[in-house]
Specification:
This protein is an all-alpha fold. The chain has a single domain, classed as Up-down Bundle (Monooxygenase). Helices cover about 80% and strands about 0% of the residues. The chain contains four helices and no strands. The chain is elongated and about 45 Å long. It starts with a helix and ends with a helix. About 15% of the residues are buried. The model has no long low-confidence stretch (mean pLDDT about 95).
Length: about 80
């Protein structure tokens, strides 16, 4: 793993970690009123496209972090649809 891949891994890790508090808060409060379903869906599609791109360019950092972010954003979409 080269130094630029490490930068990508750290950047992706921080971006991914930013979703953890929102997932936790939503789970604990059982409230999704402040979450926009449209934003979550558009974001999820974007993350899936980044994941596909990461696979195409064979970037471990992009594949790993976007896989985790996709799961976290999917959980928020699930909560948004389920906790109405």
């Amino acid at each position: 793993m080269n130094s630029i891949e490490i930068v990508g891994l750290v950047a992706g890790g921080l971006t991914t970690a930013s979703f953890v508090p929102q997932v936790y808060k939503t789970y604990k409060s059982k409230s999704t009123d402040s979450l926009s379903l449209t934003m979550l869906i558009v974001f999820f599609i974007g993350i899936i496209l980044w994941l596909i791109y990461g696979i195409y360019v064979n970037s471990i950092a992009m594949m790993l972090t976007n896989s985790i972010t996709a799961v976290l954003s999917f959980i928020l979409i699930y909560f948004k649809l389920r906790l109405k």
